[in-house]
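U., I forgot to send this yesterday:
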Amino acid sequence: MDLGLKGKTAVVAAASKGLGRACAQGLAAEGARVTMCARSEADLLLAAGEVRDKTNAEVLAIPADVTRLADIERLVAKTVEAFGGVDILVANAGGPPAGRFDQMSDAEWQAAFELTLLSTVRLIREVLPYMRKNRWGRILSIQSSSVKQPIDGLILSNGIRPGVAGMSKTLAAELGKDNILINTVCPGRILTDRLRSNLVRRAREAGKSVEEYLPTAAAEIPLGRIGSSEEFANVVVFLASERASYVTGATIQVDGGLVRGLF
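Result:
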């Protein structure tokens, strides 16, 4: 199936590792020109080089911290300078720290808001003029299954991520007339570096190796296993494509059936 992504320009945030990197590589493999950003310049340059080598796509690497407005403005400006516009945005950021309500200060709530919600607001605001000009756009916000089912010990994520989904649902009505589609994509247990570090800690607490602990971590998942970043990215790439032309305002989990709710 031709996804119609050849010649499109995508901006992928937090793209040096994990889900962001997999999304960048998936889009590049379909012929899109991709701008990758991340805070760590060394990690970003390495990841961008590998994506470029594997896909032969045009890949631009721009160090940026998505909690800083000036960095987001520079990210989009340099993308437009290099590629002439922005067609696809994958808004992504590292998750807020774990913890319970009584452990979180105002400063930690504010930092989580800036990382998770305000960064998405700012990224969307910067790319919208180019999408409106072309009357074509795809905005994907990577969040978490906590949008649909709160996760124990993640009060910041549980409290703030649903706001991104609510904003996206609202924007779907505002942007539809411009042929700009916006969706929220929610990973469940995907084997990223962050999940791996959590598994190492939990395995140690259980007195097991990570390999021995994996079946326990996957026990609640109907498919019986933890997903890969590539499996998640496949859904994002489809939603970014011409073939997803009638999907907007959706909140879609990619979780192997982990979330049991109907909505």
